[in-house]
Amino acid sequence: KKERKKERKKERKKDRKKERKKEREKKKERKKERKKERKKERKKERKKERKKERKKERKKERKNERDKERKKERKKERKGGERKKEKRQKKKKEMSKNPRMC
Questions:
Q1: Is this structure's pTM higher than 0.85?
Q2: Is the pLDDT higher at 5 or at 29?
Q3: Between the CA of residue 75 and those of 69, 71, 78, 88, what are the distances in Å?
Q4: Number of structural domains, the chain?
Q5: Can you tell me the distance from the alpha carbon of 57 to that of 65, in angstroms, rounded to the nearest whole number?
Q6: For a surface tag, which of 65, 72, 91, 100 has the fewest beta carbons within 10 Å of its beta carbon?
Q7: 66 lies in which domain range?
């Protein structure tokens, strides 16, 4: 009887040991999975950020281009552009007609 009791005790001890081992393995596995998931998430986030950055950069570039164009247009307008050319040509014509003005 005593021996049987001892045997059962040993068996239970072994079983508990196995169970604990299984639990540890499960825990490890879960930890691994979580790590994988986090890595995936970070990758996704970085991708999103890069996309955002590129979008911002392109927006900036387009803005700069538009600003350059506007600046050119304004400069032209300030110079008088076509009107000024016409005035100059008119003056030249008058000068050639009236040589005493030179």
A1: no
A2: 29
A3: 10, 6, 5, 18
A4: 1
A5: 12
A6: 100
A7: 2-101
